[in-house]
Amino acid sequence: MTTTLGGTPRTGRLPAILAKLHGRTAAGVPRWAVWAAYATTLTPLPSGIWRIAAFIFGAPLLEYGGAPPPGHGPVLVDGEWWYIVTLSVVSEAVAFLTVGLVAQWGEVWPRWIPGLGGRRVPVLAAVVPAGVGAAVLLVFPYALVMFAFGRMINGSPEGLIVHGWQAVAFWVTYAPLAAWGPLLGLLTVHYFRRRRLQHVAPMSSRHGVV
Questions:
Q1: How many Cα atoms sit within 13 Å of 98 on the Cβ side?
Q2: How far is the C-alpha of 78 from the C-alpha of 88, rounded, in Å?
Q3: CB atoms < 10 A from the CB of 8, how many?
Q4: Torsion on CA atoms 70, 72, 75, 79, rounded to nearest 10
């Protein structure tokens, strides 16, 4: 089966699966942007699995109860099982929207959307929420630095504790979150520039500019 990846014909099972899952790549999108978008969708996945395993299934990924010892490792916030599941699912769903910055459905509303299906997506309708989201997500690098010093985001030393091999598991699963904001910001800028060029090109042609 032949599909396109970043505008380049590709033959193989993996590109076909990705194209079916994420939708067709928009015209003019380079390969690096496509893979960056795919990578962005995966940034919250490891931490979501960690939360579900630790808080819902009781996996020994953190210390339960007791006062934090001096110099303890990263601290986290506990929550009810429904909150953990909802947070993980919503995080992944929001991350998946990044694909719209490189896919056709990010330029033309899908036909199943009432009143909008088949119409062009206004550039700002995608750029503004994506840009705001990228800025907000920059809290993760800051939060991870605070966690490294055994603190919550607000500087409080209270919370759940991880140390030793648990700290390794924590950083392996939570470190990708630090890349979410920067990747989204990069793709948002690329989307804006690409859509603007698509708008300028027809205008230049009509005015005889070559």
A1: 33
A2: 14
A3: 12
A4: -80
9, 103, 116, 176, 195 from 199: Cα distances, Å: 25, 17, 20, 35, 6
Q: For residue 134, what are the contacts with CB-CB under 8 A and spacing of at least 6?
A: 181, 182, 184, 185, 188
Q: What angle do CA 186, 141, 71 make, to 5 degrees?
A: 165
| pLDDT per residue as tens digits for the range 52-71 | 998 889 899 887 654 444 54
For residue 113, CA distances in Å to 90, 117, 124 come to: 20, 5, 19
Amino acid at 202: P
Task: Judge contact between 152 and 77, C-beta under 8 A.
Answer: yes
Burial of 113 (0-12, 13-18, 19+ CB in 10 A): exposed
The 10 Å Cβ neighbour count of residue 192 is: 18
Top-confidence residue, 77 or 34: 34
159-189, pLDDT tens digit by residue? Answer: 567 778 998 999 999 999 999 999 999 999 9
Encode pLDDT of 71-101 as tens digits.
Answer: 444 545 555 788 889 999 999 999 999 999 9
Name the token pair of 143: 């939060």
Judge if pTM exceeds 0.85.
Answer: no
What's the CA gap between 4 and 198, in Å, rounded? 20
